Amino acid sequence: MSTMTVKGSRRRSPGATRRSVSRNLTAYGFLSGALICFAFFSWYPMIREFILSFQKTNFIDPPEWVGFENFATVIDDSAFVSAWANTAMFTLLALVFGYLVPFVFAIVLNELRHARSYLRLVVYLPVMLPPAVAVLLFKWFYDPGAGLFNQALDVFGLGPLAWLDSTDTALLSLVIVSTWMNLGTGTLIYLAALQSIPSELYEAAELDGAGLFKRVWHVTIPQTKLILLVMLLLQIVATMQVFIEPFLLTGGGPENGTVTVAYLMYQYAFSFGNWGGGGALGLMLMLVLIVFSAVYLRVSRDRT
Amino acid sequence: MSYSTVRDRATTRPVTSAPTPQRTRRPRRRREGPQFRGLVSPHTLTTTRGKIIYWVVMSFVLVTFTAAFVFPLYWMFTGAMKSPEELAQVPPTFFPETLNWGVWAEAWDLLDLGLFLRNTLLYAAGAWLFTLAFDVAAAYALSKLRPVLGKLVLALMLSTLMIPPTVILLPAYLTVKDLPILGWNLLNTPWAIWLPAVANGFFIFLLKRFFDSIPRELLEAAQIDGASPLRILWSVVLPVSRPIIGVVSILAVVNVWKDFVWPLLVLPDSEKMSISVGISSLSAQMPQNVLIAALFIASVPAIVVFLIFQRSIMAGLTAGSLKG
């Protein structure tokens, strides 16, 4: 009897087969637009990234396989170490500011009972500005002469700083812009997470005599651990791709002080015409970022 | 479910799962219930000391936030209206001595902002339309029609989430420049923005997860009535999917509006530039006050859109943070 049913289900009636074929055709009809876009603009470029970095090409002669030569060229470049060091430093500084500040903001905002929507709105305003606009605005603020920042420092009897023109402050200046225009996102996400913490936990902690900081340490942080981790990974991946700030503010200078990996990659392709070298840099960045992305996807899947 | 205040979302993720059909619309804003408390107990806030500390912190936050996030906009607005001499003056004036209203027209004409804004609008609108048409259809097919190899297709689409856009920037540019097989050059055409915008694994993920949560019975009822898959998508799935469509729409438009690197590469023709690229490419040649005026004009659409769609934008933000 049981073999009968297996056979029966395997040999479908012609009507069922036709229905299944038509269902599949419809489904792939629906999928076609997205599939074409993904194939051309996502999947193929991923493969091409590998091809690009192992080839030498000038787009006129047929490309030539050169093994790891592009990587060797790039690594020999004096800007290579600077680019990675700057990217790492930028990411680290952006974490110190851009990661801690939003969390502190969120904790404070969560306690306030007045002007809540105003504060939330205002902190998110810079996020809405096109990044190029924000960056150019700050370029003006950083002006060593009449720029807002030096004038503000002057009020406190400090400065003036050279900001973008000095190797000491250039990278930090980029971090400040980047933080200013992005911290609204983190703040609002943490705020949402904080508001889901059950009140009882705070009440219990308070009854046990926990002070304000102990409550943050023993209740707030453990309760938002996962989102903190997710945001950490997300931010590392986002900031390691930093491009627009050096591109618009410093052009990588002074003395390669703000060259980043993404910016160097751009320069290799569009300024030096060495697409293989650019591809090699892109591939290296990809390998680093994929690790963080993979952990991030894993962690955030666990959450939901 | 409606986009309610930020506080609901972390717990219930309403935007990313389908509504139960009978629940139509909740009140837009819920008041903080008396049960709500944060770190500080409500009792502490009633004591005199608590009140003083609260108001000190409150005013400090209010002043700091206004200074950090609103003042730059004020400075930009007034800076644009100052004369170049006043702009270079040390120390700067807080209020412009003379208001130079003409600067707005000057910036508009000198930088051809009308053209750049029209271009950007065209790119954003097209990207939005293509994203909705293709990604909604695809997510619906993957979620409800479940074709052969559907799981593989989904996995391949989601795998693109692991690849940050910057690292495939060069090969993507080369692809747009010379489309494989077809040999088309899409540089300086809107297609170079529109089609890559569709290839967004995150949108597929958001939409599919939402469609997955639409009860099967709802669709089966329509199927029994003889509705075609397209009809079911249009009349059954879309109406209940308004929240997620809203989130995807906003993300799609904002992505294009804010993007800089991609339009910089694929739209090098100064007639085709988006607003960000256009302003930055001309920034070096402009007098300071005109450039600042242009920056302000470029910020206005973003700010206006934000004020109007605040709630949905913030909803999209949390949906975005919990990719996964």
Automatic annotation (TrEMBL), chain B:
Recorded coiled-coil stretches: none
Compartment annotation: Cell membrane
CDD domains to which the protein is assigned, alphabetical: TM_PBP2
UniProt keyword terms in alphabetical order: Cell membrane, Membrane, Transmembrane, Transmembrane helix, Transport
Pfam families attached to this UniProt entry: BPD_transp_1
Domain ABC transmembrane type-1: 117-309
Chain intervals with Basic and acidic residues compositional bias: 1-11
Transmembrane segments: 52-77, 121-140, 152-173, 193-211, 232-257, 290-309
Family statement: Belongs to the binding-protein-dependent transport system permease family.
Name of the protein: ABC transporter permease
Organism: Acrocarpospora phusangensis
